[in-house]
Amino acid sequence: MTILAGYLMPHPPVVIPAVGHEQSKAVAATARAMDEVGIQIANLKPDVIVVISPHGPLFSDAIAIRGERNLEGNLSAFGAPEIHLKKNNALSLIQALADQSADNNLPAVIFDHALARRFDVAGDLDHGVIVPLSFVETHYSDYELVEITYGLLSTDELYRFGQLLSSCIDNLGLRAVIIASGDLSHKLRDSGPYHFDVRGPKFDAWIVDAFEKNDLVKVVTADEALCEGAGECGKKSLDIMIGALDGLEVSSKVLSYEGPFGVGYGVVSLTDPKPSDEAKRFDEVVQGVLSRRLTRRNREDNFVRLARVAVEAYVREQKRIKLPEELKVPELEGPSKGVFVSIKSSGGLRGCIGTTIGTKHSLAEEIIHNAIQAATEDPRFPEIEPWELEHLTISVDVLSKGELVSGTQALDPKTYGVIVESDFRRGLLLPDLEGVDTVEDQIRIALNKAGIKEHEAYRIHRFTVERHV
């Protein structure tokens, strides 16, 4: 047994007094719990600490593993350059992990300074690593570091990557601790970084309850819509860490949970690992993910079912369907309207195409056409491939007729979508989008899509949508 423990640790820079100053007092419970983790790790004396962070080089289609011999960074971006970390990379482990990932058809890349320059991103350690490890360094520093940034992959892929990580650690005979760096919901209150969403506290309660019950499968199989609505950044880190603990019984303890700034900070220890066949959770995780997916699909209404059938038929057979008999309902057979079809995968948006007014004979034809376009013609993404189909979630927005408004005071990004126009240029943004919380954000994004400068004259139309999921 070479994995000594796993920990969920948040990464708010404000928890460090040199950054937060007086505000640090509001997260004192989190700081005490993180210090307790540092003491526990010092007692374990690991050879290597693996930190899984959301804030390194993030790819939609691959997991990134820092590849430089020396890993270094500081908190100068948060006004505290003196909070500095420099560690040796566990090169044998990252190479073994990259090789094993390739052998098992899991997308992973060793990310070094050359790739950082190519993608124009920072090559230094991020605060998702530095903040948790600053509490470890106070008590223990004799370890090599591995930083992994999860990719926006499916739950089972991230879990399998964790299993490979465990296998590589075991094969190399390393004594390792794994830290899943991540905050919980960012939507606990309107005063936080985003507007309140009821799914925020529900997600945090789900995760905390699962750890209190030592139910790691419940953590991994949390509903994707719940995770997305909560605006969290720790779930995928947990998927990898819990995958690495597959086959190990652990003792789970919630050391602290609080959310004074509208963001949930949870500190959890998973200790005393012991091999057990009953703790081989992968099959249960896969079944849980499939059950969650089927439950969601069974809830889809006729609009979404039509879009899904259209996408699947075209991607698999290049076939454009007609309205199936079982979906022939008056709403779909009626006059066409403006329709947007949005397609998401575990990695986020996968395609979104629409029309502002009806262009086909019926609403069904409009949905079919736009669904196929979203799957194959969105210039931001490659065409959807057959292997992706089972992972997709689809929504259909039916637009009302646009209404000219005199100014932004008539707008609300949760209620109204916007169309901005200047001459032949036109930009549209749907309402109630993730991360679009203010009218200013909404107009700025719509103008950017249209190629209209903010100082130019433009007209604003607002519209509502009937959203089908």
Provide the fold topology.
Elements: E1 3-9, H1 17-20, H2 28-44, E2 48-53, E3 63-66, E4 70-75, E5 80-88, H3 91-103, E6 108-111, H4 113-119, H5 127-137, E7 144-149, H6 155-171, E8 176-181, H7 199-212, H8 216-220, H9 224-230, H10 235-244, E9 248-258, E10 265-275, H11 282-298, H12 302-317, H13 330-333, E11 339-345, E12 348-354, H14 363-376, E13 393-399, E14 403-405, E15 417-422, E16 425-429, H15 439-450, E17 459-463, E18 465-468
Parallel strand pairs: 1-8, 2-7, 2-8, 3-6
Antiparallel strand pairs: 1-10, 3-7, 4-5, 9-10, 11-12, 11-13, 13-18, 14-17, 15-16, 15-17
Helix pairs in contact: 2-5, 3-6, 6-10, 6-11, 7-9, 12-14
* Poorly predicted segments: none
CATH class of the largest domain: Alpha Beta
User: How many domain regions?
Assistant: 3
Widest sheet, order of strands: 6-3-7-2-8-1-10-9
Q: What share of the residues lie within helices?
A: 25-40%
What's the total helix number? 15
Distance between the termini: 45 Å
Number of strands: 18
The overall pLDDT, averaged over residues, is 94
Largest sheet: 8 strands, mixed
The CATH architecture assignment of the largest domain turns out to be: 3-Layer(aba) Sandwich
Report the CATH superfamily of the largest domain. LigB-like
Q: Per CATH, what is the topology of the largest domain?
A: Protocatechuate 4,5-dioxygenase, Chain B
Beta-strand content bin: 15-25%
Oligomer: single chain
Task: Provide structural commentary.
- This protein is an alpha+beta fold and 469 residues long.
- The chain folds into 3 domains: 292 residues, LigB-like (Protocatechuate 4,5-dioxygenase, Chain B); 99 residues, Glycoprotein, Type 4 Pilin; 70 residues, 2-Layer Sandwich (Dna Ligase, domain 1), CATH 3.30.1490.150.
- The protein is built from 15 helices and 18 strands.
- β11 and β12 form a beta hairpin.
- α6 packs antiparallel against α11 and α7 packs across α9.
- The protein is globular and about 70 Å long.
- The mean pLDDT is 94.
